[in-house]
């Protein structure tokens, strides 16, 4: 057995570090004595050495060695002369054991994609004759063409994959994302569906994802639900993830979170879709849950965009925009097609008043996900922030026409109309239509309440908000209801609404400000005549076991002016205490379980 054959065997056995050392030494020997190895042996050594570099993620070095190998292969084709070697290379037909030139080019393309040199990857794969392209080469080409915006070439390559492998479901998704009709795609799989038992669900699956890619969320949800209910596909994590994403796109955050949690329980190592899940949790003010989710995902893999996005959402909703920007950029570096990462970075840039940079990121998100409304919402918010109302109106109208007249698009268009006094009535009409379609759609309720506030129709606003809160609980709705109740002098109930809002999201600054303002209005004399001071407060909760008092580490203390607010999600309690001077303390509380002690200052305590 020759030394090159030993290298080949180690490569086949996956001993990449061993191959790297030995092939490196042999290539140096060959450089010092060109007669030592035959052209075919040099070609093999270069390929095996490049493979070991690829395995070590040294992609640029690997490309260099693969290029040298291809040059050596050209020289080999020009001569059939076999030169003597130290490895006794006498006798076997070299063509039987030479690494495939097609495979070498594919690995070069992989290196280029890892180096984000997509044009070079396309060029190297384009050089392979069509008849010699394997399914994996066509699949890579299809994805690269799609990313480069060459849709026709991408469709052709995806179809070629399906011709060779009719059950390549990712290729099917690729075709559907490029607006190929579901019926046409289904026809390409019909023969295999009819010839293999228990594949009758595939045509329904194709139909469902055709609805997904045309933006018909309602029919997509119904179709996937019908699939998921079938006994053979029940509790499929991919289908649950798709359902969660569709509910999110449809603005049904409650059901979206539910499906994500269900998928997560079935697969504790699930990463796909967790960036959206983290974003939804952050929007609800569940920052501790977001932090825990981020830590868990980092333990699974830090080479995916999702953990970085989740951590970025935690920073963004904690108002640490610079850190959110960094984490979003890191996520994009790992996956340039991560829509959620682009939205995170765009939102951070917008809040840092770098609007033009934010616009670039939102536009890229729209290119990647033209059916996701939140991408358009981010861009329109940027236009409004820079007073580009005309551009915002054009974009909102385009979304309305493209995605159809549903509650979300109607509300988005109404949001822009509210910015112009001339189109206030149009905004009102649009919001009424949206609320007729979906009376519980929070964004529509918020915008309608904003309109009623401008018109000082507080009683109408209170009725609207009470109806919306009948079957759901939302921090923003409770806070706005509190504002409306203050306007009609219902101070006690307003305080209760602010309390509920803060129990849902302890970081909601506007609820704190509303409560603080109301406290000052209740007793302006105290506020001006008595000196405020910062007090030391400890909240002790009785948890589930009433016999044992324990300090709850999840309790949150917020001090604002002369108002102390305590919120504990863990024990489901909410406290408000107002203090003046040295010892004067007023305390109010709402409790739902347990018994508590509130200790104020060094010696005083109030037992509730």
TrEMBL record:
InterPro entries: TPR-like_helical_dom_sf (IPR011990), TPR_rpt (IPR019734). Pathway: Protein modification; protein ubiquitination. One of its GO terms (biological process) is protein ubiquitination. Keywords: Acetylation, Cell cycle, Cell division, Cytoplasm, Cytoskeleton, Mitosis, Nucleus, Repeat, TPR repeat, Ubl conjugation pathway. It is found in: Cytoplasm, Cytoskeleton, Spindle; Nucleus. It comes from the Eukaryota. The keyword Magnesium does not apply. One of its GO terms (cellular component) is spindle. The keyword Kinase does not apply. TPR repeats lie at residues 339-372, 475-508. Component of the anaphase promoting complex/cyclosome (APC/C), a cell cycle-regulated E3 ubiquitin ligase that controls progression through mitosis and the G1 phase of the cell cycle. The APC/C complex acts by mediating ubiquitination and subsequent degradation of target proteins: it mainly mediates the formation of 'Lys-11'-linked polyubiquitin chains and, to a lower extent, the formation of 'Lys-48'- and 'Lys-63'-linked polyubiquitin chains. The APC/C complex catalyzes assembly of branched 'Lys-11'-/'Lys-48'-linked branched ubiquitin chains on target proteins. Belongs to the APC7 family. V-shaped homodimer. The mammalian APC/C is composed at least of 14 distinct subunits ANAPC1, ANAPC2, CDC27/APC3, ANAPC4, ANAPC5, CDC16/APC6, ANAPC7, CDC23/APC8, ANAPC10, ANAPC11, CDC26/APC12, ANAPC13, ANAPC15 and ANAPC16 that assemble into a complex of at least 19 chains with a combined molecular mass of around 1.2 MDa; APC/C interacts with FZR1 and FBXO5. This is Anaphase-promoting complex subunit 7. It comes from Alligator mississippiensis (American alligator).
